[in-house]
Structure formats: structure tokens, C-alpha cells
Design brief:
190 residues; Spore Coat Polysaccharide Biosynthesis Protein SpsA, Chain A; 7 strands
């Protein structure tokens, strides 16, 4: 099953020491306003896809879509929980981690395009989201994971592919996440 949070943890760990911040960026959310700031989030986590701008999610604790963090702040939160298999809730739990670390989420100001700021490309008819809840997953998804994150993500790199996107170097990783069914029985469909 898909685990967005674990994949972001892996991306963080594999990014090395030559980066100072990360952009947790959903691939199906495209910015349409050139005034959006993707710069270094010096003052703390910066939520580019804030609830006032996101086309779908408008609740004040929402931090999904596009969130920028310094590597130091991501480490302070111990990354994201690895317990979220399937679609959803991992960013809601991450909001609680951010607050627990004493960090303040900042959001864009002066953007006048409102809900037209982004294009959301997800087409459920073409690619269905894995929203199945297995075993105790439904109850577990509302808990804060105080132990897991960067410190215990388990994975294997199947392949690395170097490429260039608009002249910028990029590395695509093919990752196999470990699924411990004794810890999270909902990590498989079976």
C-alpha cells in the first residue's frame, strides 16, 4: 500500500547534507500563481497550499498539499509517522507534531487568487485513492505517534535514476518500504 509519510521520510534521509530545507509537495497540486513563495522557510514551517488557497481542504489545521520546512525543523518533529498506509490523515498527525515541537506554521499573505491559486489534477475515475481501512486502522489514524518517524522508517532502494528537469539535476528513487504486519497490520490488503 502507499505510504506518503514514509516516502517523505525517505526523501528527507536520502537528500543528504547539501540541502537545507525540504518541500513536501503533492504531485497532483500545481501552483498557478507566480507570487507563491517557495523560498527558504527561515521563520518556521511555511504552508504554501494554505486552507484559504487550496481548492479542496479549508480547515485551519490543514498542512498538506505543499509545506516547506528547514531540515532542522523536520528533524525536531522526528519527521512524519510511518503508521499511515493508504490515503489520508498523515498530514493531520504531522500538524500535531509541528505544534508539539513548539513550531508555528506560517502561510502566504497577499495572494488574491483564492481557491483558483492551484490546479488539483487528481481524477478519481483514472486513479482511485486507497482509502480502505483495515483492522484497527480507523482508530489508530486519530492518534499521535510519539515513537515513529525518521528514527524508524525502514526501506530499501530498488533503483536510482539521475535526470534533469528544466536544467535542474534530479534523482528519482524507486523505494520498497518495509511493512511490519505485527506493528501495522493494515500495511497490506491481505
Amino acid at each position: 500500500r502507499f505510504n506518503r509519510a514514509s516516502l517523505i521520510n525517505v526523501g528527507f534521509l536520502e537528500s543528504g547534507n547539501d540541502t537545507d530545507y525540504i518541500a513536501m509537495h503533492d504531485v497532483d497540486l500545481l501552483p498557478l500563481n507566480e507570487q507563491l513563495d517557495y523560498g527558504f522557510p527561515e521563520e518556521g514551517p511555511f504552508h504554501v497550499a494554505s486552507p484559504e488557497l487550496h481548492p479542496l481542504y479549508h480547515y485551519k489545521t490543514y498542512v498538506g498539499g505543499i509545506l516547506l520546512l528547514t531540515k532542522q525543523h523536520y528533524e525536531l518533529c522526528n519527521g512524519m509517522s510511518n503508521r499511515f498506509w493508504g490515503w489520508g490523515r498523515e498530514d493531520d498527525e504531522f500538524y500535531r507534531r509541528i505544534k508539539g515541537a513548539g513550531l508555528q506554521v506560517r502561510r502566504p499573505t497577499g495572494i488574491k487568487t483564492g481557491y483558483e491559486t492551484f490546479e488539483h489534477l487528481h481524477d478519481p475515475a483514472w486513479r482511485k485513492r486507497d482509502q480502505k481501512r483495515i483492522a484497527a486502522q480507523k482508530q489508530e489514524q486519530f492518534k499521535v505517534d510519539r515513537e515513529g518517524g525518521l528514527n524508524n522508517v525502514r526501506y530499501r532502494i530498488e533503483s536510482r535514476t539521475a535526470l534533469s528537469v528544466a536544467g535542474a539535476p534530479c534523482t528519482v528513487l524507486n523505494i520498497q518500504l518495509d511493512c511490519d504486519t505485527s506493528e501495522t497490520p493494515w500495511c497490506t490488503f491481505g
